[in-house]
Specification:
By secondary structure, this protein is an alpha+beta fold. It is built from 3 helices and 11 strands. 12% of the residues are buried.
């Protein structure tokens, strides 16, 4: 009986080392608590620089060792780590984490935290825009920010500080 237990332990140890050395293609879906797919979620192989992002439907595909750990992350959600264990399908459900959200200002060449921005910031609230019907984005924000002139120029928007 004792030899049987030892040989089972050896088989388990062998199968774990087998999966950790074998490269597998892992795919799956990343979604939130209510089952809505998260487009643009990050999927990384822990301890490496290998990663990908989910598509519009929350689907991803990545190559990893069978014993690797995948790290799933998305802005406003807690990170989740899931062991591959030789599986070819690994789905992840991320929980919301409102403590990670901060006010972000989108600027012409990127984005940064509102607290790090030096200068004036104007906000056009979506509720204010939804009160009326507009033909284009220029009409939606014209006259809503002090000291800014908005002009539509062949499909692009030009904001000029007065």
């Amino acid at each position: 009986m004792a030899t049987l237990q030892i040989s089972v332990g050896i088989v388990v140890a062998f199968s774990n080392s087998f999966w950790s050395r074998q490269e597998v293609t892992v795919s799956g879906t990343v979604s939130d608590d209510s089952g809505i797919p998260l487009a643009g979620a990050n999927v990384l192989v822990k301890g490496t620089t290998s990663g990908t992002q989910t598509d519009f439907d929350g689907n991803y595909s990545i190559s990893a060792d069978g014993g690797a750990i995948l790290v799933f992350s998305y802005i406003g959600f807690t990170k989740q780590e899931v062991a591959v264990n030789g599986q070819s399908v690994v789905n992840a459900t991320l929980a919301e984490d409102a403590s990670q959200l901060e006010e972000v200002v989108v600027i012409g060449y990127g984005s940064q935290k509102k607290s790090d921005l030096t200068g004036a910031v104007s906000t056009v609230d979506s509720e204010e825009i939804n009160k009326f019907t507009y033909n284009d984005a220029a009409q939606a924000i014209q006259g809503r920010t002090a000291g800014v002139r908005v002009e539509s120029n062949g499909g692009s928007l030009e904001l000029t500080r007065l």
